[in-house]
Predict the structure.
Amino acid sequence: MHTGPLIPTHYIAQISDHMDERGLDSQAWLARRDPHSFHQAELLCKVELEKLTSISRLAGQVHILLEMSAPQDRKLPVIANKLYLTPRTLHRHLVAEKTSFKMLLEQVNHQQAKVLFQHGKSVQSMAYALGYTESANFRRAFKRWEGKTPQEFVNLVRDPNPV
């Protein structure tokens, strides 16, 4: 049976309370002192807060488990087992949150493919690293995600302003 979020809700509440207590004075000081740094810090905080709140939803927990899992373990039964759920129950809960295991897996693979591109990995090695058995399947998925083939994406990243 699913027992709750990976990060206890009371811990998330404590973080929020602490931020509220100290936030007003610190925010005003930093905003006056260095507006650019304040803006950057504010954006980072919003991203981190979104991550924390998504963890409290089951889809967020599945997303995190997919990110942490080896490609061969990114399967519905394996992830469901880690959450102490049956695959069918996990599927039902994800549908109730208006998502699916396949959608979450696609998001994780897309994010990780972009990171691998930044590290200069070949299409073949990326396909393998993400759990694709054929690089052609990875190419099709990448084109669906980005609207460009992996090679077109690499060319665009290397030279964003072609002549």
